[in-house]
Amino acid sequence: xxxxxxxxxxxRILSEQLAPAKAETKTHGIFSSVDEAVDxxxxxxxxxxxxxxxxxxxxxxxxxxxxxxxxxxxxEESAAETGMGNKEDKFLKNKAALDNTPGIEDLxxxxxxxxxxxxxxxYSPFGVIGAVAPSTNPTETIINNSISMLxxxxxxxxxxxxxxxxxxxxxxxxxxxxxxxxxxxxxxxVTVAEPTFEATQQMMAHPKVxxxxxxxxxxxxxxxxxxGKKVIGAGAGNPPCIVDxxxxxxxxxxxxxxxxxxxxNLPCIAEKSLIVVESxxxxxxxxxxxxxxxxxTPAETDRLRAVCLPEGLANKRLVGKSPxxxxxxxxIAVPAKAPRLLIAVVNADDxxxxxxxxxxxxxVVYVPDFDRALALALKxxxxxxxxxxxxxxxxxRLNLAARSLQTSIFVKNGPSYAGIGVGGEGFTTFxxxxxxxxxxxxARTFARSRxxxxxxxxxxx
Length: 461
Ligand code: NAD
Hints:
GO molecular function: acetaldehyde dehydrogenase (acetylating) activity
CATH topology of the largest domain: Aldehyde Dehydrogenase, Chain A, domain 1
Strand content: 15-25%
Protein name: Aldehyde Dehydrogenase
CATH superfamily of the largest domain: Aldehyde Dehydrogenase, Chain A, domain 1
Pfam family, one: Aldedh
Organism: Enterobacter lignolyticus (strain SCF1)
Mean pLDDT: 95
Bound molecules: nicotinamide-adenine-dinucleotide
Number of helices: 16
Structural class: alpha/beta
Keywords: NAD, Oxidoreductase
């Protein structure tokens, strides 16, 4: 058979998997049932799989160009709908996701050659990815995941959080429309009109969903792991921040305030507790106050704890609220100049320290020395393998902490968000796969690694 005849045959076999083209439906990726949405995304994947790499690049360029003017409105709507975080920081998160998520250049090919021939290792798509997005970073996760997963050649079914439904559906429809205008394929990015928890469960069980990418709390990640599918699980964290006596205290204070107050402490990577060597604790706190932190008295700390962490667990109504809103909720006077962050000196076993709380209130624990600081940080991070931050000029200690904590992200002498490419080197991601170990995800995370072997030479050495 001639090569051209073989190509025609292969195309025919592939196209037989495609359903006959239906009359144009213009759903903008939003369907009334999970089955319809997944089927449509599967059909879109089969068509997308036949496209060259330049089609993927064209879609990603168009997403970057066309979403840029919408980022500010998306940030505002996201803050308003979820009632969490603030539009200024959400804009920065959206922008980082749009500008700094890698595209197809992330899918590097590796080749091995020798007397036995040549081996190629390449990244291929999985198919339909079921992506669960959190309420804390709804639009930035959808932008980041869309670029990564489409770059890897997949189609996507999104399960947005019901609490961020309107803004998420609007964004999913916009991305699906952009992809359609770029390549003529509809339904590369889909969801359902009512993204309920039941819909998420149905999606997880759907046979045409090849892989799950879950960004959320421990419950939903654990649920995904029971599905029997491959899961890329991005779960909760509780990032400790260590400051030792060698640190540049002015820089440390500014970085910690910037990181811990970012989007009112909603990011899973944000500093959630500060562990400081006591010989420099007073100076550090003074510096933090000069950068806009409000130090609470022990009595105020107790009042705030009672409303924010009743029975030790975060009060959902106060997650992601501003420092002033937290003070008001605890009937504590709000200073004329609104604080950027609340801080309070507490014991190591305080629930402010031991629990992820996602509020702009940073508990501070004094320790006698670096060894005790590291031991406490290990306890607080509790093997989540998520994020830790450290300020120190002592390289051996920085190395020891990084090696011992084994977190997916370890930031040295910077704000936590430097770990996701904001003001630090490296690409941006809003899906940090912690329990499943992929770490900071990008296109290659959402691709199957394949090996292609030629036994008859092709080594030119
Ligand atoms: P969440 O677990 O409440 O929700 C996450 C997603 O899971 C949402 O889409 C939600 O609809 C879905 N979900 C939750 N419970 C469900 C159920 N019973 N049935 C079906 N679907 C369900 O989390 P959240 O409050 O939106 O986000 C905050 C959490 O996510 C924090 O713990 C944070 O650390 C974590 N997070 C982790 C990362 C990461 O990259 N590792 C990124 C962002 C957020």
